[in-house]
Automatic annotation (TrEMBL):
Entries under SUPFAM superfamilies matching the protein: C-terminal effector domain of the bipartite response regulators (SSF46894), CheY-like (SSF52172)
Annotated InterPro entries: CheY-like_superfamily, Sig_transdc_resp-reg_C-effctor, Sig_transdc_resp-reg_receiver, Tscrpt_reg_LuxR_C, WalR-like
CDD domains: LuxR_C_like
SMART domains assigned to the protein according to its UniProt record, in alphabetical order: HTH_LUXR (SM00421), REC (SM00448)
Molecular function via GO: DNA binding
Record PTM 4-aspartylphosphate, positions in chain: 52
Top-level taxon in the UniProt lineage: Bacteria
UniProt-recorded name of the protein: DNA-binding NarL/FixJ family response regulator
PANTHER family: TRANSCRIPTIONAL REGULATORY PROTEIN NARL-RELATED, TWO-COMPONENT RESPONSE REGULATOR
Coiled-coil parts of chain: none
Transcription regulation in keyword set: yes
Organism of this sequence: Amycolatopsis jiangsuensis
Residues of the HTH luxR-type domain: 144-215
Residues annotated as domain Response regulatory: 2-122
Length: 219
């Protein structure tokens, strides 16, 4: 796995690079600015880019803008965004395509090394990973969406775990139910959120995006 890292804090940037290299992962370049990471992506053609949301010069949304631009240039590039806080509009902007190979984690997750590496590998393999805290806050803010109100409490639990990138078996283990029960819940979620099998996007991703987009519109 070839990785490019964009983080304006030198200590965090180098610490993250050391962590990944210790896991025998190939960090091909690091950058401290959004322009720098776009150049590095073009030059080194990584499998995945890890970007901070807030970068110079304004420390607002440069990292997200760089992530969106990088995906425009190279749609196959996996992108994992790190943020110090839950910033739902940024998450929605990045994830709005409904495509896979995208992740949004809080920086504190990096300290939980196994969880972070699992999310990194999942995103690099074309999956999704949304931080559990992001999921929890966005669910709370999205309660008035009519379609979301159709979901049962257990279906909400399943959708939250789907958002974190867990597969059916992992969800079943977490909720202590059978794989068959999870499959039925997911089919019900798709039906209640009006997600058709004919849709051109991954329905698991689209289901999460429904409440992400709703939360953004309400703020």
């Amino acid at each position: 796995m070839r990785i490019v890292i964009a983080e304006d804090d030198p200590l965090l940037r180098e610490g993250l690079a050391l962590l990944l290299r210790a896991e025998a992962l190939d960090v091909v370049a690091t950058a401290g600015t959004a322009d720098g990471v776009l150049y590095a992506i073009e030059e080194h053609r990584p499998d995945i880019a890890i970007l901070d949301v807030r970068m110079p010069p304004s420390h607002t949304d440069e990292g997200i803008r760089a992530a969106v631009e990088a995906r425009r240039r190279r749609p196959e590039l996996a992108v994992l965004v790190l943020s110090a806080y839950v910033e739902q509009s940024f998450a929605t902007e990045l994830l709005g395509s409904g495509a896979g190979g995208l992740g949004y984690l809080l920086k504190e997750r990096v300290g939980r090394v196994e969880e972070f590496l699992t999310a990194l590998r999942r995103v690099a393999a074309g999956g999704t990973a949304i931080d559990p805290e992001v999921v929890a806050q966005l669910f709370t803010r999205s309660r008035q969406d009519d379609r979301l109100e159709r979901l049962s409490p257990r279906e909400r639990d399943v959708l939250a775990l789907m958002a974190q990138g867990l597969g059916n078996t992992a969800i079943a283990e977490r909720l202590v139910v059978t794989d068959g029960a999870v499959h039925k819940h997911i089919r019900s979620i798709f039906a209640k959120l009006d997600l058709s099998p004919a849709d051109q996007v991954d329905r698991r991703v689209a289901a999460v995006l429904r409440y992400l987009e709703n939360a953004r519109r309400r703020n």
